[in-house]
Amino acid sequence: MENDIENLRGQILGLVGALNAIAAVLPDSTSAHASEVLTDLLAATSDSGLSPKVTEGMHSAMQQINSALLVSLHRPDTSAV
Q1: Do residues 78 and 25 touch, judged by C-beta distance below 8 A?
Q2: Using one digit for the tens of pLDDT, what is the confidence trace for 23-75?
Q3: SS3 label, residue 37
Q4: Cβ contact 17:65 at 8 Å
Q5: Closest to 38 (Cα-Cα) out of 17, 15, 60, 65
Q6: Cβ partners under 8 Å of residue 63, min gap 6
Q7: How far, in Å, CA of 41 to CA of 12, rounded?
């Protein structure tokens, strides 16, 4: 069982990492829209009926992805070169 939990944790970290990479290459308007939707989803799932630990883990992953989206909005624009 502990092995299954560690495997699941690794999969979640991989998913968050992959989404961070995708967020880094999205156009700013898309990143901004995705961040807004994710913020709304965070609020909507606060009373999801899931156990507190599951909700905490889900929100942690979602906040990490949202942070990546926000960082991508502040990157310098290199397309004008």
Answers
A1: no
A2: 888 888 888 899 899 999 999 988 888 888 888 888 988 898 888 888 766 66
A3: helix
A4: no
A5: 65
A6: 42
A7: 18
**Under a CB-based contact definition with an 8 Å cutoff, are residues 64 and 16 in contact?**
yes
Residue 63 CA, chain-centre distance (Å), reads 5
| Residue 12 Cα distances to 16, 30, 57, 81, angstroms | 6, 23, 10, 37
Neighbours of 32 (CB within 10 A): 15
**Residues shown for the chain:** 81
Rounded Cα gap, residues 46 and 48, in angstroms:
6
